What we know:
The complex is a heterodimer. Chain A is 76% helix and 0% strand.
Amino acid sequence: MSANNHDEHNDGHIAEVHHPSYGVNILVWIGLLSLTAITVAIAGINLGALALTVALLIATVKSLFVVNFFMHVKFDNKVVKIFIGVCMIVFIIVLILTFFDLTFRF
Amino acid sequence: MSNNINTAVEEVQEIHMHRDDFGSKMGMWLFLFTEVLLFGGLFILYASYRYIYPDAFIVAAAELDIFMGTINTIILLTSSLTVVLAIVALQKGNKRLSMSLMWITVICGLLFLVNKYFEWGAKFHHGIYPKGPALEQMSEGEIMYFGLYYVMTGLHGLHIIVGLIFIGFVMWQIKKDVITASNFQRFENAGLYWHLVDIIWIFLFPLFYLIH
């Protein structure tokens, strides 16, 4: 019984292999390189005020690919996802508060 | 009741065999969040000064070489891929392939730093450095741009160096069979760190190089 308990206990803590595969990661890499090519190509076009938004949008998509596949978050525990969400919300709140100050100071 | 105590005693006795990969991973993520907030502060500083000096940032960014920036982006993305593939290779029991892929990662990291050296070198040559002749002639906004450029790419470069040391340590442990197909959390943690450094570059690249 106690030996059994111990096994179960360990199962929760030893990292499991999440169906490792070369193919998916290579596909993600090709996607990332394509997005890099797109963002550089778009930078050559004069989009005016939209340019920054588009560049940041592409960078965000690239980061989501890296986080979900390279950092395995897609296959990860829910706690990790919640942590990342909280961290991002804190960052965005501080960014918005800074801009309240910047835009209304004068 | 006594059964419970016995179990507890056995668990304490076996604690030296206990491995907490999940805890190790969470610890790494918590550390990564402090890194996000460190760089996040600088990104907010960048956003603020770009808001105040939009035109000066465009003028100053023209000094940067988009081609060099693109090459460095490709190098870092590739190094991230080789780290992931190295972890897959080790999990599949192919230690030799894993080590080869890690060597490619190290070479990519070093290439990135060499490119950065030439980029910074070219700017120093043009007199763009603190109290440099070209920088003294520039407007306040351009000076802010280059201040942020040196601090943010410099701090990022330091992270590349730390990442390479971490990766070197992990490679040594793979070689010594401390990190194996069934015990790879430290390897994953090194990968997480390297990918975070990659993500920071994914944002630095468009913000500093691709402004028109």
